[in-house]
Amino acid sequence: MTGAIVGATVHEGKAYVVTRGQKPPVLAEIDLSTRKVVRSVRLPDGPATGEPEGGWATAVSGGKIYVGTYPVPDLYRFDPATGEVAHLASFGKNGGYIWTLAAAPDGTLYAGTYPDGRVREYDPGTGAVRDFGVLAAGERYVRAVAADDVNVYAGLLDKGKLVAINRATGAVTELAQGATGIGVVAEHGDRVFATSGATLIDVRKDGTDDRRVPLGGSSFDALTVAADGTLYATSRPDGAVYRYRTGDSAPAKVAEPPSPDDETRRIALTGDGTLAGFSGSGGMWSLDLGTGQSQFTDLIEAGLPAGAERPQSMLLVPGRAVYVGGHFFMDVRDLRTGEQRRFRVPGEPKDLVRRGNKIYAAIYPSGNIISIDLRTDEVRSLGYLGQGQQRPWDLEYDPVRDKLLVASAPLGAELEGALSIVDPDTGRIDVYKGVIPGQSLMSLSLDARKGVVYLGGDVLGGGGTPPVHASASVAAFDLRSRTVLWQVDPVAGHRTFQDIKVHGGLLYGVYKRNSGAWIALDLATRTVKYQGTLSGYGELTTHRGRVFVSTFFGGGNAYELSDHTTHLATGLGDDWYTNPQLHFEPGSWKAWALSGRHLARIDLDPRCPLLTVTPPQA
Predict the structure, then answer these.
(1) What digits encode the pLDDT tens for the residues 28-79?
(2) What range(s) does the Pyrrolo-quinoline quinone repeat domain occupy (predicted)?
(3) pLDDT tops 60 at residue 327
């Protein structure tokens, strides 16, 4: 269950937040004085584009609240006076995002979109839409926009550019080039502020007087500017609050994190020296700028309708519990009592593994590796992967060397991922970046007896940078010498492994690109021995001497892989956020999985006929 949010904005003593992960998403109105949800509505399906799952983009114009959604890039309007919701426009097809919205002083709205990397103008009075075209060749993300009387200021994530678009002529001027993607933008007076990684860009609106302010290894994820030109910001990954004025050599910390290790979606000055903040985990806070004291409110407790989100990861502790990772929370189903509980974690657990009385999780978007005590639910951080490795994909435990192994990809326009070796007792992290040159890592599989970990690559890396290879590689890495033993490209033109698993002298691999292709690679000859096609990509697991896989698409399917494909189950649904997974109970063919967004225990005996699962109604 989740109360996570993406978009947030403030208007006349009320806050408006939009949920993420729920279908359909909730737009909730919160009274800032009582800190209670006073009204909520659901965003309906677009007439042609489909069902939204959240809305990153929010803005106020003419007393009305506007929301831009994903994974259908649609624009909606909520009228606080009448409570009515209207679908206004579509800016692309299913799979797209409206990442950001800003209102110019005259009320005209500007939207930044993905995957076409464009800015669009919407006139609330006439409904007219204007497209400003390609802003940079190959750009996919306009991640942030701000607007004044003359220009729209857009931050490009892939190309790291801050540009100004003349609202009258459409002319595009580059104001600054960041070292990495531009994630947030604000404007005031004659200056524009933007963040590029661990640097704050402070530049005049004509592109002159470009000042670069180091952020000490952190980044800013939300900005707002006071009437006197003071910039307030929240940092990531810790969530602290900072203040900056043009001419300062560095931002000054105003307060410790009101919501530690959280993502801040929006901050806004609400009067009387108070800063309001909205946290991605599903919270809001207020900060007294004079005293540095803050107050945090959980939005579910405040009355936000909770709903089921798409899970990130799962782990079975046999006879005890099933752990399911969501957005900033872990849900636990106690198998002994049937009870369910949840507790907070600092991000999205992309993968989970057990070691003794602890579970370890690899967290996005920080690259944090955390431990969770099975007895107390206590969460502790071992440390961060660093070196740009903020997207961990796979995690395994090496019982011979007593280490955690992490396969990761960079965040943003970089190619090279890393294998990280983590000591769970000391927190030491050894990062081997570029272990497959020019590729990120999507998966790993350990042969603990041989001391070799096998790695599955992805030529696209973090996205936004042209690949330097045409085919995804498999590499063997020796954990004793810490060196690569060999590397091979099993199938030409297949660019991304989703998962790999070593079993019986073969390396089984499922591709994401091309989706659903699978192989069994003979490790002795490094040649493909078997191959086939599944409904889509997913995660492999071994159980009782056999290899299984659960996949997306085609309604959600489970298979056994050998020298051929055996279809075991269908109808599981396509509601995983990351990889569809199966978790078998020891000594049986019962496996824990999803049925839609519900936890399910299914029988996958390979001797039985095809199982058709019917997800329960929500």
Answers:
(1) 999 999 999 999 999 998 877 788 999 999 999 999 999 999 999 999 999 9
(2) 52-245
(3) yes
The C-alpha atoms of residue 195 and residue 185 are separated, in whole angstroms, by 7
pTM exceeds 0.85: yes
| Spatial separation of the C-alpha atoms in residues 572 and 598, rounded to whole Å | 10
User: What mean pLDDT do residues 296-323 have?
Assistant: 96
pLDDT at residue number 618: 55
Give the C-alpha distances (Å, rounded to integers) separating 511 from 256, 407, 561. 44, 16, 14
137-147 burial, b at 16+ Cβ within 10 Å, e below that, comes to eebbbbbbbbb
State the Cα–Cα distance between residues 398 and 405, nearest whole angstrom. 7
Burial label for 238, CB within 10 Å (0-12, 13-18, 19+), is middle
- Give bridge partners of residue 453 from the DSSP assignment: 446, 477
At 569-591, the pLDDT tens digits run 999 999 999 999 999 999 999 99
Q: What does each C-alpha distance from 46 to 50, 108, 116, 431 come to in angstroms? A: 5, 22, 20, 45
DSSP code string of 119-157: EEEE-TTT--EEE---SSTT---EEEEEE-SSEEEEEET
Rounded to whole angstroms, the Cα distance separating 548 from 364 reads 26
